[in-house]
Specification:
- With 443 residues, this protein is of the alpha/beta class.
- The protein folds into 3 domains: 134 residues, Rossmann fold (3-Layer(aba) Sandwich), CATH 3.40.50; 152 residues, no CATH class; 105 residues, Trna Endonuclease, Chain: A, domain 1.
- The protein has 16 helices and 18 strands.
- The chain has an 8-stranded mixed beta sheet with strand order 12-11-13-14-15-16-18-17, with helices on both faces. Strands 2-3-4-1-5 form a 5-stranded parallel beta sheet, sandwiched between helices. The chain has a 3-stranded antiparallel beta sheet with strand order 6-7-8.
- It is globular and about 70 Å long.
């Protein structure tokens, strides 16, 4: 029996980006970690096309995870699509996990040149758009970077309605209701998001720890085994061959989200566990090997690296960046659920929320102090501090101090999980974390 069609949940943030480039020559490339919703986004776009007059015979969809297409050569792919094209009408081509076809870029470029078509592709590895491949499509593609569910999407996918109501004191408060109209505690739902993460597939199995971890185990194994180890073999390279070393690096990075981390600090930890040798020439861990392993994890979108920026010197620094994990559920699957380290976990969530909203993000250095995030886009720059609480006077002073040192006039914000007094102090906004996460735009 063929797989039944699943109900599609809206991902308007990403769908609107695809719609904006519809019927342009530009190839739409959707990237992101496995199972974050790329295939569903393609199906949402197909639905949008059909709702707006595009006929079924104009749409060609191919998923290269299917055995039906796995052994195709790039030439066979070209001939297959050519044979499926509609007569005298524009074709809409959708290719899922296209990196599994060797020299896929030759076919895509040929489709663009030879046919009247609109092209959409997905890939689960940044290597898809490495300089080697991007050269073929230079200036002719746009990347849609997809992430797991935001907290607001998490609530929506799990069937909760979000309303903002004014209380007796005039302050707005969030009210969360299920389909039966029952009111839910926002803190409990955020705790569930922190525990289970935002992989869309969790919605189908419910918030059951054993089931969720089984699903995350499948995602993790696919990313590590197929997207890293097998890909290295296909590329004919032998830099990344040790599955245990790779797992140890993953565990180290997952355990150190939000901490200043360097290749050397990773190496020293692994040397102590006798998992990596010392380079006899300089007495240090083998940096090149570690860089290859960490680079593969970044390419597979399981970790994201953030650089430090010297605010006074106005330059990026080469040392002591940070790494954040793409999904908190994956971290809990790897390390076990913890009650400690809440501050860094909240940082992790805010970092990816800023990416979703289209910001480029860096760590700020001002003297000997640090700004958690500098978020910039074409229109604005915002400095962010992220903290568990702003209720204690000592904490307030600690979090405000580095922001007070910045002499420019860009917006400065402290996001706090616990915040009894959301006010503006010395031009610095103190904002409740939930207000930031649940409001669609702006502060």
């Amino acid at each position: 029996m063929l797989k039944r069609e699943v109900q599609l949940k809206n991902r308007d943030l990403y769908l609107n980006k695809l719609i904006a480039f519809k019927d342009t020559e530009i190839v739409k490339v959707i990237t992101g970690i496995r199972r974050c919703g790329k295939s569903s986004l393609m199906n949402l776009m197909v639905r949008h096309l059909k709702e707006n007059g595009v006929k079924q015979d104009q749409i060609i969809q191919m998923n290269f995870e299917s055995m039906e297409y796995q052994k195709m050569s790039v030439t066979e792919l070209y001939q297959y699509v050519k044979g499926q094209l509609p007569n005298n009408k524009r074709a809409y081509l959708f290719f899922d996990e296209i990196q599994r076809i060797t020299d896929w870029q030759d076919a895509i470029n040929s489709f663009r040149v030879d046919f009247d078509c609109d092209i959409y592709v997905t890939g689960s590895n940044a290597y898809l758009l490495s300089s080697e491949y991007a050269t073929y499509l230079s200036g002719r593609y746009v990347e849609i970077k997809m992430l797991p569910l935001s907290f607001r999407e998490f609530l929506d996918f799990h069937g909760y309605a979000i309303k903002e109501k004014k209380g007796p004191d005039g302050e707005k408060r969030w009210r969360i209701y299920d389909a039966d109209g029952e009111n839910y505690d926002l803190r409990e739902l955020f705790a569930a998001y922190m525990k289970f993460g935002g992989m869309p597939g969790i919605v189908d199995i419910g918030l059951d720890m054993d089931k969720v971890f089984a699903l995350l185990d499948g995602i993790y194994s696919t990313v590590v085994i197929r997207d890293i180890l097998e890909r290295e073999r296909r590329r004919g390279q032998r830099q990344i061959t040790d599955a245990e070393l790779l797992r140890k690096i993953i565990m180290f990075l997952a355990d150190n989200i939000g901490n200043n981390t360097s290749i050397t600090s990773i190496g020293n930890a692994l040397v102590n566990e006798k998992l990596i040798d010392i380079d006899k020439r300089n007495g240090r861990p083998a940096v090149q090997t570690l860089q290859a392993y960490v680079g593969a994890l970044l390419e597979s979108f399981i970790f994201y690296e953030i650089k430090r920026f010297d605010i006074k010197g106005k330059e990026y620094l080469r040392t002591l960046g940070k790494y954040y994990i793409v999904d908190m559920g994956l971290r809990n699957y790897l390390l076990g659920v913890r009650n400690a380290d809440t501050g860094h976990c909240i940082e992790n969530i805010v970092y990816f929320e800023l990416l979703r909203r289209g910001y480029d993000v860096a760590i700020g250095k001002i003297g000997d102090q640090e700004i958690d995030f500098i978020a910039t886009n074409a229109k604005e720059k915002i400095y962010f501090q992220v903290t568990e609480s702003m209720n204690e006077p000592s904490t307030r002073q600690r979090e405000l101090a580095p922001l007070r040192k910045i002499r420019d006039n860009y917006e400065k914000v402290v996001l706090a999980w616990e915040c009894d007094y959301p006010v503006t102090q010395d031009g610095i906004k103190i904002v409740k974390l939930m207000d930031f996460l649940l409001r669609n735009v702006g502060m």
